[in-house]
Specification:
Blueprint lengths: L1 H28 L1 E7 L8 E5 L8 E11 L7 E10 L10 E2 L3 E3 L5 E9 L9 E8 L4 E3 L6 E7 L15 E2 L2 H4 L4 H11 L6 E3 L9 E3 H21 L6 E2 L2 E2 L4
Parallel strand pairs: 1-9, 2-10, 12-13
Antiparallel strand pairs: 1-3, 3-7, 4-6, 4-8, 5-7, 8-10, 11-12, 14-15
Helix pairs in contact: 3-4
Length: 251
């Protein structure tokens, strides 16, 4: 009787051990990948991508975070994204966005990755939405529900900064540095200086970043814009930079 009890206990322990080993092996082979927009631990599942506030370069990036749920691996593993919903008849892979190759490095839990956004004029009259998520493969399943989708709204909507023509002391209006406003000029400035011209220029006192810049900084950006405009026009003889019929100039 005693022998039978010992045998039964041993058999149960063996079964339990085998089951745990199978679970561990399964977790290692089929880990889950959580994704969210941004580069920090604040979980964001949506953003608005406004082409009007982006440079005129052919490509831009949206950054996202990816985090492993499961066991580490001593090998690099590839994971993939796909568009899972939204206005997929209007937002198309290759035409509006590109997925580079995503690799989770060996013995790491996650990292920061990018989706490439292509310059487009397709969303001037009507915005469009696309929802990205994990495309399950032999390495990864999608993660927790609240960390499995990334919603991006694409649009192109300009808005003239309120301080372009008027800004009270101790600030100086943006038109003092960049001249009259136009949408093309706005994007040209963004491309040249690497940020949208929605800041305030403090003429007196110390500028408080990121929403304020010094008068000296604004003068430097003005000079950069004039040089880049001259370069553009010299490369496009007879076709200077315009917004409609208006030739772009800087004071």
């Amino acid at each position: 009787m005693k022998f039978n009890i010992i045998y039964a206990v041993g058999l149960l322990l063996l079964i339990s051990s085998c089951k745990k080993e199978e679970e561990l092996r399964y977790d290692n082979e089929h880990s889950a990948m959580n994704v969210w927009l941004g580069t920090d631990l604040q979980l964001r599942d949506s953003l608005v991508y406004n082409y009007a506030y982006k440079s005129l370069n052919n490509f831009d990036t949206i950054k996202f975070s990816a985090r492993l749920t499961g066991l580490l691996s001593d090998q690099d593993r590839e994971f993939q994204l796909k568009a899972i919903s939204g206005d997929l008849d209007r937002v198309k892979e290759g035409q509006h966005y590109v997925f580079p190759k995503y690799i989770l490095k060996a013995n790491t839990y996650g990292g920061i990755f990018t989706i490439l956004i292509k310059r487009s004029g397709d969303f001037k009259s009507k915005e469009a939405k696309v929802v990205f998520g994990i495309s399950e493969n032999e390495h990864f399943k999608k993660g927790a529900v609240e960390q499995s989708v990334m919603k991006v709204l694409l649009k192109e909507e300009f808005s003239k900064p309120a301080n372009w023509d008027l800004d009270p002391f101790p600030y100086t209006r943006l038109s003092s540095f960049f001249g009259g406003y136009s949408n093309v000029k706005f994007q040209f400035i963004t491309t040249v200086i690497g940020r949208t011209p929605t800041f305030r220029v403090r003429t007196n006192g110390t500028a408080v970043p990121p929403d304020e810049v010094s008068h000296t900084q604004a003068l430097y950006w003005q000079s950069r814009c004039k040089l880049e405009l001259s370069k553009y026009n010299s490369e496009h003889i007879g076709e200077p930079l315009k917004d409609g019929d208006e030739v772009i100039v800087f004071p």
